[in-house]
Design goal:
The complex is a heterodimer of chains A (554) and B (366). Chain A has 554 residues and is mainly α. Chain A contains 27 helices and 2 strands. Helices cover 24% and strands 33% of the residues of chain B. Classes of the chains: A mainly alpha (554), B alpha+beta (366). The complex binds adenosine-5'-triphosphate and magnesium ion. Chain A: It is found in: Cell membrane.
Chain lengths: 554, 366
């Protein structure tokens, strides 16, 4: 009692300020509440939020080009694709070494598939050239091993390449490896590039460091005991094409200098073809600047390409432009999905409203009985229900048979009711109807019959009483049902797939195709993201027009 | 008595029966005639069929048997919206999605009345219930009493000749209820509307009505003006139901000169007015109002039978004293006396003699 008389903050019985002890008491409650929902939260986070975020990310993510061909991407940066000239030899050298590593990691076909979305033919280009890379290297290897037989042996190579001071080169190789294979290069490489060699023979050191990284981390072998890749011989030959390098080698006195000097001396015997020629020889598409332009265009880590594709646009050197007419499908699919979802929602309202009304106005027992009938379809598998519609609607199906039997339709002109939009609308209306009836029913149940009676006692006819008094109060139920049905419909997949034919499929079917058949997950993610955004926009519009607080589930 | 005074009845129930399930009769043989302008209350315990009668009159339930007439014509086959009966529901049934003004305007709109005339009438009706400035609000933004007035205004705005109200004040607190009771009767009389009012609050029924129909078991037990109902109940249900009442049980010994001599179960004799008894030997239940009992010997009439009583409890209630006695072996005998300067205050344990005028003691059915 004395507490109330003193000035200053209110104190609890134990003398702590009341605010603080209240906060403490509430905190305990909050923690307890949080612990109760923690499993669900975790579940939703893992199974719902993360996948959605992952999808959003995938729709713009494009690191595959820069992580598979890091040197090429860097070399292409300076190339002006609109100059009309192809890129220089340096780019082709980078392509050779990048592809060689990628082929060792078996990642080059993935990149081929990815780039094939943007330009057809790239996939096969990567696959064929991947097989020819070794041949190119062997041409150098044969000569080098002839003039310096000791270089047949991996141990000799190790002796030459290993040293001190070149850690940076090894680190760069480790990082390339990490990005390419999505694995961390952990632990000891067992190889430190010699700084002198690295300075004198940069390509060779790079190629050898790549080889060392793969040997240690991918194969788990010791670098010193393995024979190097063909690409290392090619890199040595490339390095020795420079007269300054040859002079430096002649003056070099480190381990194994005599072998290098032997190779340098026999430089004229080494093949002198350019890497460009070698690659074009492997696949002539390498001579096509389009290919390199595509690689250059999709080099950035993030791309709007998937989204452009989703709305029938594409990137071109002249900026964004429409796709060729025969490739434009997504806008059509989106509009079709939207319109058909609206039609389905509309027919669900028309069919469901009277049912819900009857259910809400029947005595409880009968209403529960009938409710079971409404829910009955949920007890059968979706596939069975959809397939049943096939039986009903097909040209030799039940409905056509009946119509022919009644003489309403000639036997030779049976109605086409399936594998088109009509079939999809009928089947989906049937399947989604309960989702409309349930919220409408529970809202209608809360409307006391006395309102209708009041309206009638005030002189309204049955229709006026319904339309002016009952209907407005049932709108929240219609709203809830419509949102439910529309959102379910817009993402529906199985039913359109089965009864939709080509004219009745939805955007989801295309998404499913890209997920499971064409494996273009980026495009699927972009389409999914657009669908999500469209739904959110419609939801927002609904909120603006009708008001989301005007939606009741009971 | 009262029924015979109604010659040209405005509302008339004739031998009306109602069953919902085909097994039990909820309303059994209802006969009722109301003149124009009367305020009639249906009073009765829960489940006695009051709402059912109202619904049949409004047209939301059909009578299983019998005839309901309005202004002389049978309305059995007229749909509710053509009956032109105003109705106030127990939960008011104001349309939640319309403003107050729209609610009131609704009956006028469906009658195809012009806009300006409509607005004028709505405003007048709102002013009448002192809600003139609330037209733009929604029902949910009003207090219970305000909603009640709006409901009343809505039932009256299209100027019906007959208004039905089903426990319209049930949800209000005591003070507001009393205020509204006055306002409703005042309005009804001022506008000359015929009103059927349902309640199970007997004070409400007695203070508001021209006549009260006491319902029980699907029948009108008594239909009479409030004072008559209180002072001259025709059967023991009405006597018990209306006001406080003392009952004693016994057997009729003899009846002559309009007086019945009743022998109570413990052998004492009392004089009563025979109401529902006609011959000696009948069992009877005797009813006396607590305020009609006298214990001051000087004021008792000569020759009246008296009873011995023992005071059990004396309760001071301000304006009155309430004393509980043991009489004829019963502990629940109550007497009420006015708090007058010369009034004697009884002490528990005191032995007294009580008596009453034979007219105030009614021998009813057992
Ligand atoms: N729709 C109905 N279906 C079946 N029985 C009903 C229905 N309405 C009322 N009854 C029954 O009819 C009887 C009379 O009901 P009614 O509503 O007329 O009583 P009431 O006098 O208005 O009671 P209260 O004072 O509680 O409102 C009750 O036994 C009730 O159970
Ligand atoms: Mg009732």
């Amino acid at each position: 009692m004395t507490d109330t008389t003193q000035s200053g903050p209110m104190l609890a019985a134990d003398g702590t300020p009341l605010k603080r002890s209240l906060a403490r008491a509430l905190r305990m409650q909050k923690i307890r509440a949080l612990m109760l929902i923690a499993p669900l939260l975790l579940f939703v986070l893992l199974t719902f939020i993360f996948p959605i975020l992952d999808m959003l990310f995938r729709s713009v993510e494009n690191q595959i080009v820069s992580s598979t061909m890091p040197r090429t991407v860097a070399a292409l940066q300076d190339w002006d694709s609109e100059s009309g000239e192809g890129p220089g030899e340096e780019v082709y050298q980078s392509i050779y070494f990048d592809l060689f590593v990628a082929a060792e990691a078996k990642e080059h076909t993935k990149l081929g598939t990815r780039l094939n979305y943007e330009q057809t033919g790239v996939s096969s280009l990567f696959r064929t050239s991947g097989r020819r890379l070794d041949d190119i290297g062997e041409e150098f290897q044969d000569v080098i091993e002839d003039v310096a037989p000791a270089l047949k042996d991996g141990a000799t190579w190790y002796e030459i390449m290993n040293g001190t001071g070149g850690e940076a080169v090894a680190e760069a190789a480790k990082e390339r490896f990490g990005r390419l294979t999505d694995e961390r290069a952990r632990g000891d490489l067992g190889y430190v590039p010699s700084a002198d060699i690295a300075q004198m023979l940069p390509h060779t050191t790079d190629a050898y460091a790549d080889f060392a990284t793969f040997t240690t981390f991918e194969d788990g072998d010791s670098v010193a005991e393995e024979d190097p890749w063909e690409a290392v011989y090619a890199a040595l030959a490339l390095d020795l094409r420079d007269p300054d390098t040859r002079a430096a080698v002649a003056a070099y006195s480190g381990p194994g200098a005599e072998h290098l000097q032997a190779v340098a001396a026999a430089q004229e015997q080494l093949p002198d073809f350019t890497f460009k020629d070698a690659l074009v020889d492997a696949d002539k598409d390498w001579g096509n600047t389009e290919t390199l332009r595509t690689i250059q265009m999709y080099a950035p880590n993030y791309t709007s390409g998937y989204f452009l594709n989703s709305v029938d646009l594409m990137k071109s050197p002249d900026g964004v432009q429409a796709r060729p007419e025969n490739q434009q499908i997504y806008i059509t699919l989106f509009t079709r999905t939207l319109i058909m979802s609206l039609v389905i929602t509309g027919s669900c309202i028309l069919l469901g409203y009277p049912v819900a009304w009857i259910l809400a106005n029947l005595p409880m027992r009968t209403a529960n009985m009938l409710m079971i009938l409404v829910l009955l379809p949920f007890w059968t598998s979706l596939l069975v229900r959809t397939s049943a519609w096939k039986v009903m609607l097909q040209q030799q199906g039940v409905i056509n048979d009946v119509l022919v039997w009644l003489g309403l339709v000639a036997d030779d002109s049976r109605l086409v009711m399936i594998n088109n939009q009509f079939g999809t609308i009928v089947a989906m209306t049937h399947i989604l109807l309960p989702f409309m009836i349930l919220p409408m029913y529970s809202v209608m149940q809360t409307i006391p019959p006395s309102y209708l009676r009041a309206a009638k006692s005030l002189g309204a006819t049955n229709w006026t009483a319904f339309w002016r008094v009952y209907f407005p109060q049932s709108v929240p139920g219609i709203g809830a049902g419509s949102i439910l049905v529309f959102i379910l419909a817009i993402g529906y997949y199985i039913t359109p797939e089965i009864v939709g034919g080509t004219k009745g499929v939805f955007i989801s079917n295309r998404i499913a195709y890209h997920i499971s058949s064409s494996l273009n997950w980026g495009l699927a993610a972009a389409l999914g993201t657009i669908l999500l955004v469209v739904v959110l926009i419609l939801y927002w519009a609904y909120d603006k027009i009708v008001g989301i607080d005007n939606v009741k589930l009971g | 008595m009262a029924e015979t005074t109604v010659d040209d009845a405005f509302v008339e129930f004739e031998r009306v029966q109602k069953s919902y399930d085909g097994e039990t009769l909820v309303v059994k043989d209802l006969n009722l005639k109301m003149p124009r302008g009367e305020f009639l209350t249906m009073l009765g315990p829960s489940g006695s069929g009051k709402t059912t009668c109202l619904m049949m009159l409004a047209g939301f339930e059909t009578a299983t048997h019998g005839d309901i007439r309005l202004g002389g014509t049978s309305i059995n086959n007229i749909p509710p919206h053509k009956r032109g009966i105003g109705m106030v529901f127990q939960n008011y049934a104001l349309f939640p999605h319309m403003t107050i003004a729209e609610n009131l305007s609704f009956p006028l709109e469906v009658r195809k009345m012009g806009k300006s005339e409509r607005e004028q009438k709505v405003q007048r009706a709102l002013d009448m219930v002192e809600m003139g400035s609330f037209g733009g609000r929604r029902p949910a933004q009003l207090s219970g009493g305000q909603q009640q007035r709006v409901a009343l205004a809505r039932a009256l705005v299209f100027e019906p000749e007959l208004v039905l109200m089903d426990e319209p004040l049930g949800a209000l607190d005591k003070q507001l209820r009393e205020k509204m009771q006055f306002e409703i009767t005042d309005l009804a009389h001022r506008l000359g509307i015929t009103t059927v009012y349902v309640t199970h609050d007997q004070t409400e029924a007695l203070t508001m009505s021209d006549r009260v129909a006491v319902f029980d078991d699907g029948r009108i037990q008594q239909l009479a003006a409030p004072d008559q109902l209180y002072e001259e109940p025709e059967n023991s249900f009405v006597a018990q139901f209306i006001g406080e009442n003392n009952t004693l049980e016994g057997t009729v010994k003899e009846i002559n000169n309009g007086l019945a001599l009743v022998e109570l179960d413990d052998g004492e004799l009392i004089d009563c007015k025979p109401i529902n008894v006609s011959q000696p030997g009948e069992r009877t239940r005797v009813s006396i109002r607590p305020e009609r009992i006298e214990y001051n010997k000087d004021r008792l009439r000569e020759g009246v039978h008296t009873l011995k009583a023992e005071v059990l409890e004396f309760i001071y209630m301000g304006d009155i004293f309430r004393t509980r006695l043991r009489v004829a072996g019963k502990d629940e005998f109550i007497i009420k006396t006015r708090n007058a300067p010369d009034q004697q205050r009884l002490q528990p344990g005191q032995q007294i003699e009580i008596g009453w005028l034979p007219e105030d003691c009614r021998a009813l059915d057992a």
